[in-house]
Amino acid sequence: MTTITAELKKPSKKSKKALVRGMMDNVMEQFNSAADQINLHPNIRKILSITNNEIIVNFPVKMDNGEVEIFTGYRVQHNNALGPYKGGLRYHPTVDIDAARALAMWMTWKTSLAGLPYGGGKGGIKLDPTKYSKGELERITRRFTFALADNIGPEHDIPAPDVNTNSQTMAWIADTYMSTRPPAERTANQHVVTGKPDGSGGLEGRDRATGYGVYLSIKFWAEKNNKSLNGKKFIVQGFGNVGYWAAHFLEKDGAKLVAVQDAYGSIQNQKGIKVEDLFKYSKINDGSIVDFPNAKPVDKNQFFTLDCDICIPAALGNQITADNAPNIKARLIAEGANGPTNVEGEKILLDRGITIIPDILCNSGGVVGSYFEWLQNRNGELWQLNEVMEKLDKKMKESFDKVFDYSKNEGVDMRTAAFCIAIERIEKAYIQRGIFP
Amino acid sequence: MNHINICPSCIHRNNCALTMQKDKVWSCSEYDEEVEDLTTLETVQEPKENEKRKLQLV
Lengths: 437, 58
Prior knowledge:
The complex is a heterodimer. Chain A has helices at about 25-40, 40-50, 95-115, 135-150, 165-180, 210-225, 240-250, 275-285, 345-350, 360, 365-380, 385-410, 415-435; strands at about 55-60, 70-80, 85-90, 120-125, 155-160, 235, 255-260, 265-270, 295, 310-315, 330-335, 355. Chain A is α/β, with parallel strands linked by helices. Chain A starts with about 20 loop residues before the first helix and ends with a helix. By secondary structure, chain B is an all-alpha fold. Chain B has a domain at about 1-30. The longest helix of chain B is centred in the C-terminal third of the chain and has 9 residues, at about 50-55. The termini of chain B are far apart.
């Protein structure tokens, strides 16, 4: 076994820009806290504290008006001890190397906890997509793919959709990447991206994978605590893909949706809101749940304090804070969104004996779905929906049980347990393999 | 301050009921942007009614 004995250097204050405080600091804080908990080897802490590769590409694209514009694209590859880098590509004006770094590191923990043979990566292009035509967006995507060249690949780094990118974007990337391969190898490279459209190697059921994973996490928690979901009241913040599908499966299991909040407003009915009725209503009401006939409006600031057994924040971060945590009625928080509970809010909830199924576990159904798509393409298979759901069930159960048992055995909360398991798995790989040379 | 912030380009930015901290959002399931339909197929021009009739007569 290789042993590295150098001391950890203290981070240089000079090199730390004030602007990058925030997300990267949060990710590092979570990492350091878990690393302390498991007494992570200092050398492995050093390796995991920084990214493996950071690729910045400036590439020209011909615009519709004949002018050429230069774009900047990023791909950060944090760690690949467990397998190819995996993570989304976002198109947004705020994309930069620091944003990609934090999100890539987060992906490393997420794929590790999910027990997938992946590492973590993230990237994107700094642009505002509203300012470009569909033809321009296609050329930007294809040229970015060409610029990244062999820095991505089906066995090396596998991008996926993120903010402002979708299955169409992935189809363009796959097509461009495959076109750069020798003819006989082209079809063997379809799994260079996941999140592709159904007809182009995409996974059946990918739309519901995250929401189903949220439901499964709740179900497993109920089973571990000898509770039935039948008649349990739940509230959902966000009625998009995650919130809707989680509510759909919970209702099928006998639970009762009593309140929903989306970007337009909040509604409540303690007697129950039919999930499918609300979904159909939102479709014909420009995506909004407001004024749903079988419910009453609720003050948006009261939403999380409504009477319920289970609370599913499935929209955005920083929603459960010191302000509302003391008044939350739910006994279980299932984090469908990323980072919905802040540090202060979490402390209050844990002191009150409320369980939190952490985001890194609870919403990991999406990345597991991506893994299934990759496997399906790699093996030349086409999986049926029921097959996908069964496999997802099995994979989520494995992760949940590990986190739950670790949490019980070590006397820590489930979030700490999840991070410890994720980091220990990577540590084990480094210990087994050693460091080259 | 968090420099990752997707709210300014979201169509709900002015009326969003979810958060007042619109400078801190890096991920949101309600995020939506007014982008053109990315369907790449071109629209097929339907023949006008009288042209259709003419074709039927021929």
